[in-house]
Amino acid sequence: MSQVTNVPYGDLEVGQKASYSKTVEEKDIQLFAALSGDHNPVHLDPEFAARTPYKERIAHGMFSGALISAAVACTMPGPGTIYLGQTMQFTRAVKLGDTLTVRLEILEKLPKFRVRIATRVYNQRDELVVDGEAEILAPRRQQTVELTRLPTISIG
């Protein structure tokens, strides 16, 4: 298990940055399809995907959105953060094997513990794949929590 310390509202500063990275694997695509119910063949069927402009399977767009959520929830501000809203523009396809890095930047501190955060996702070639912004409710006090260890999940 790993411990994570959040950044409470009072300690957040405009311009503050954090990042979170993950490589997109086959199991991620399968699990996301199962969880979301999105079985679009462009994500799951290599023969179908070969006939698309991408020429190969691509990850679900909202998979990148889920990584943004993980970055906000586990990195900055961290545990205790509540999402209020998120905008996203998908600028480039994400393919299996891509390593995605979510880069967060505090844009504005608002009243009542609300915060605007730039949420951008880049691939391993430093190409922007998602450009967005979140509004969150930041934790009021600092705390260190133990992240829950998830059970092993298998496909098939």
UniProtKB/TrEMBL annotation:
CDD domains: R_hydratase (cd03449). Signal peptide: none annotated. Residues 16-115 form the MaoC-like domain. It comes from the Bacteria. This is MaoC family dehydratase. It comes from Azorhizophilus paspali (Azotobacter paspali).
